[in-house]
Target: Methylated-DNA--protein-cysteine methyltransferase
Amino acid sequence: MTEVRYGLYKSSIGPITVIAEDDEITMLDFCDCVEKGLMNNEWFSDLFQKLDMYFQGKRVEFTVKIRLPMNPFRQRVFKEVMKLRWGEITTYKHVAERIGSSPRAVGTALSKNQTLLLVPCHRVIAESGIGGYSRGVDIKRKLLKLEGHEF
DNA sequence: TTGACCTGGCCGC
DNA sequence: GCGGCCAGGTCAA
Model:
């Protein structure tokens, strides 16, 4: 029996909704889409503490379990991106070379990322600049700034 | 089947 | 240097 838990974290750049199934995070997104009655913030206290530190600009490694997509190609992309540590950035081209694919396909895979921050797709930028972001380039820019990068 | 996506390389000018 | 074209993987329409 799958147990689903919902949490809402208020970050300095907007509300973040977190959803976990059993003990895996299945979604972490910049939106306020949790019904109040369903919230179970206590369950997420460890993660929220880390988010506190993260949004204070401190170096944080997220160690929570996340659910990777079923799609094998995306799994490869996500695993490659998850190797990036706090403050590290790379390009779509570099990720594509590592997994033997094309930058365009990497961008598409990352655009489907449900677990923002945990799969740090904001650390993947275009060669020509910051690149795009499914939740808006503005959020991507702010996240990168927290980690010491200006775009 | 087509077009749209978080890109980049190549070509012609 | 810049604009146009298209390969790349996936999915919604």
